[in-house]
Design goal:
globular; 7 helices; alpha+beta
Length: 273
């Protein structure tokens, strides 16, 4: 069986045309993983996977990183369902998942259970294409730079509901990790390691470093490098966490928006060559 796809934008994102049974059979898994690396984001429409099926499909593509007994993380602002709901406000800022670790996840799958009435789209940016489009001068400038990342720093770059600012200050910055700004992949390709988790550029004046990060994010979020996904029930979206940034668009306060997430275990340590 051969994989049939339709590109969603020129530089990032493809819809995979396949029914749920074909996806769960595993017969397309190798082609799906290759297409994920090539296109950064894959969309599967009208598959309506339950949790067991979502996990099985993810595991057929690549080993999953179990986060609880079922491997599902509850993406919701309801603190009764997810005690970590507050930190999810930070996902409204561009980021790559788990840059506070030495081995970031290979990828992520997300499937909705309840959708917001308005907003809540997920936007993706191709950090391979963004790097490749930089000028030679910028590539030379950032080639050997390192950046410190903390997950909590995302919260300092989004608009928070009134009354939460003090809570964010109490959270502190959390665990930090220093990574190269340019990811030299085993494939020989390079991508930007970028997002608002960045707290400082090592060895650079703070104001200068902040300006550089802001400029690179502004470059990477240009329309030619991005895809914005408008969710429908039954969707599964899979993205390559090693070559994309992502963020959620704001949605109405008090929304019951609720998605389940499965993470693919990291394969390639993010270290300078």
């Amino acid at each position: 069986m051969s994989l049939t796809t339709r590109d969603l934008s020129p530089a990032i994102g493809s819809e995979v045309i396949a029914d749920a049974a074909s996806l769960l059979s595993g017969s397309l898994a190798a082609e799906i993983k290759a297409k994920l690396t090539e296109r950064g984001v894959l969309l599967f429409r009208d598959v309506h996977f339950d949790d067991e099926e979502l996990n099985a499909f993810a595991a057929s593509v690549s080993p999953i990183d179990n986060q609880d007994e079922k491997g599902n993380f509850k993406v919701t602002m309801d603190a009764e369902i997810n005690p970590m709901a507050l930190i999810l406000y930070g996902t409204r800022a561009w980021h790559m998942d788990r840059l506070d670790t030495a081995l970031p996840p290979l990828g992520t799958l997300l499937s909705p259970r309840v959708l917001s009435l308005e907003g809540g789209e997920t936007e993706f940016a191709n950090t391979y294409a963004a790097y490749e489009a930089l000028s030679d001068e910028d590539k030379a400038l950032i080639e050997d730079l390192e950046v410190e990342h903390t997950t909590a720093n995302q919260l300092r770059n989004v608009e928070l509901p009134a009354g939460l600012e003090q809570i964010v200050d109490q959270l502190g910055m959390g665990t930090s990790r220093i990574h190269p700004l340019v990811w030299r992949h085993r494939s020989g390709r390079k991508s930007l390691v970028l997002g608002w988790t960045a707290t400082r550029v090592v060895g650079m004046d703070p104001a200068e470093g902040d300006a550089l990060i802001a400029r690179l994010i502004a470059h990477a979020e240009q329309p030619q490098f991005t895809y914005r996904h408008h969710w429908r029930m039954g969707d599964v979206v899979m993205w390559d966490n090693t070559g994309t940034m992502h963020r959620v668009q704001p949605f109405e306060q008090g929304s019951k928006r609720y998605l389940h997430r499965v993470t693919l275990a990291g394969e390639e340590p993010l270290v300078a060559a």
